[in-house]
Amino acid sequence: QVQVVESGGGLVQPGGSLRLSCAASGNILSIYAMGWFRQAPGKQRELVARITSGGSTNYADSVKGRFTISRSNAKNTVYLQMNSLKPEDTAVYSCNADLTSGTYAARGNYWGQGTQVTVSS
Question: What is the signed CA dihedral for 91, 55, 17, 121, rounded to 10 degrees?
Fold first, then answer.
């Protein structure tokens, strides 16, 4: 059984910073990539940032230069440092892990429960 758990959301003023964490646990054999997605009310879920096991990253254009994704392979954990936050960054942020697990090395995508980020004065 694989679990993905996020933490670090909350309320912050415009221009402020937050750091999200996401840890994957369970009978994990290998993690190929982990990423952060977000969904604002009335909008579709969108990719915010993603990082592969080799360290390659990609970001949504709207967050480039403000957000930084990083990971600890030893801890199966990914972080999202969010700076210069704007009201339009308000959304539920969810973590995704692309990994293999279990006796038969089944590959799948696993999601966390999501964490709310609200940017407001």
Answer: -20
How far is 69 from 37, CA to CA, in rounded Å?
12
Sign of CA dihedral 50, 80, 66, 11: positive
Answer yes or no: are the C-beta atoms of 115 and 102 closer than 8 Å: no
53 to each of 22, 77, 96, 100, 107, how far by Cα in Å?
15, 11, 13, 13, 15
Instruction: Kindly state the tokens that stand for 63.
Output: 């967050």
Beta bridge pairs of residue 98 = 33, 109
Residues of the chain where predicted confidence (pLDDT) is lower than 50: none
pLDDT of the residue at 31:
94
- Strand locations in 1-121 (E): 3-7, 10-12, 18-25, 28-39, 46-52, 57-59, 67-72, 77-82, 91-101, 106-111, 115-119
Other C-beta atoms lying within 10 Å of the C-beta of residue 82: 25
